[in-house]
Design a protein that fits this description.
three-stranded antiparallel β-sheet, about 350 residues, 13 helices, TIM Barrel
């Protein structure tokens, strides 16, 4: 498989603001040689499609800015028109809110809140978390994913560093503490990175992904379960993402480690580490790294992007996913023009 992917956001982007914008973006991506788009469908406590599940539990059918529309359906129609695959991206995963003290979700479901060792709401880098170890929370997120799987003509589903994920500082809520105590006859360590405590919680997330993979495939066996975790082993220590186990157990079809470095030397170093890892070596055909092309004031250079893609190919990696669409359009479409000239030339999505 050759994968030339792009993440499509609703932050710092106007693509999803209208059907016309979506159509223009899909034309642009197809002409540039992309063949998979990963549109956001879940963030900031809202879906970007009309959700009966969200309506029933939280009284909010869709992000209010898309009222009377279905951006996911529009992306699917326009992407199909130009021959591209669509893998909806559940960006926020188990995150409830960003700098809103839990926001809408935890206001309605306070028992879903994650807790740190002091009993406070679990917050990391400004993001406030639901308890990803709790069965009710897991059932909610799984139902959200399966709602999209059942109702839309898609090619897969995408998680990231928030699904399945959980900051390792979490897990100190009463229910999880009791669950651990029942199993080990002691309370969890105060050191949130204690190996046994870390792995026990990571295994709960792996079990969730096993279930998600099984239930997605039961509905549509051909769908791809795609994940974009942080880089291992940082992913395990910080967010309980044990993706060597995910790969070895066959519960992911595509993996996009976020190799978000701001210079080529650092990126190359991560790719070198990646391909040397035994669990990756045996499954390189599933690996398509995430490359950061724009965030905040940062913009990747044309030279860096071309070097990164060339290096990927030199070590047997047959694609990548770029974060995110708007980076292609800056400086008079400079990155897109460069991709059309060399690495993505001859690969129109059509």
């Amino acid at each position: 498989m050759i994968l030339r992917g792009i993440w499509l956001t609703n932050v710092d982007s106007k693509v999803l603001h209208s059907r016309d914008n979506i159509a223009e973006a899909m034309d642009f991506l197809a002409e540039t040689g992309f063949n998979v788009v990963f549109p956001v469908v879940w963030n900031k406590a809202f879906t970007l499609y009309p959700s009966q599940l969200m309506q029933r539990i939280f009284g909010t059918k869709i992000d209010p800015q898309y009222k009377d529309r279905d951006p996911l359906a529009e992306v699917i129609i326009e992407a199909r028109r130009v021959g591209m695959k669509i893998i909806p991206w559940f960006e926020y995963g188990f995150v409830s809110s960003y700098k809103q003290n839990g926001g809408l979700l935890l206001a309605k479901k306070p028992e879903w809140a994650a807790r740190d060792c002091r009993g406070n709401l679990l917050v990391k880098n400004g993001f406030e978390w639901m308890n990803a170890l709790d069965e009710q929370v897991q059932n909610f997120l799984l139902d959200l994913v399966l709602e999209v799987v059942r109702n839309y003509d898609i090619d897969g589903i995408q998680g990231d560093d928030r699904m399945p994920a959980f900051p390792s500082e979490g897990g100190y809520d009463a229910k999880t503490v009791e669950r651990y105590r029942q199993q080990f006859s002691c309370h969890p360590p105060q050191n949130h990175k204690h190996h046994k405590w870390l792995q026990w919680r990571a295994d709960i997330l792996t079990n969730f992904l096993t279930r998600l993979h099984r239930e997605v495939k039961a509905i549509k066996p051909e769908l791809l379960v795609s994940m974009a975790p942080s880089f291992y082993k940082w992913s395990l220590n910080e967010y309980l993402q044990d993706y060597p186990t995910w790969i070895n157990q066959g519960i992911v079809d595509l993996i996009h480690p976020q190799l978000y470095r701001r210079d080529f030397a650092s990126y190359k170093s991560l790719v070198q580490q990646l391909v040397k890892q035994q669990f990756i070596c045996n499954h390189l055909s599933k690996v398509f790294p995430g490359i950061l092309i724009k965030v905040g004031s940062y913009r990747i250079s044309v030279d860096y992007l071309l070097e990164a893609i060339a290096y990927n190919r030199s070590v047997g990696i047959n694609g990548e996913v770029l974060f995110f669409y708007e980076g292609l359009r800056e400086n008079n479409d400079a990155l897109a023009k460069a991709l059309r000239m060399i690495p993505y030339s001859g690969f129109p999505a059509r």
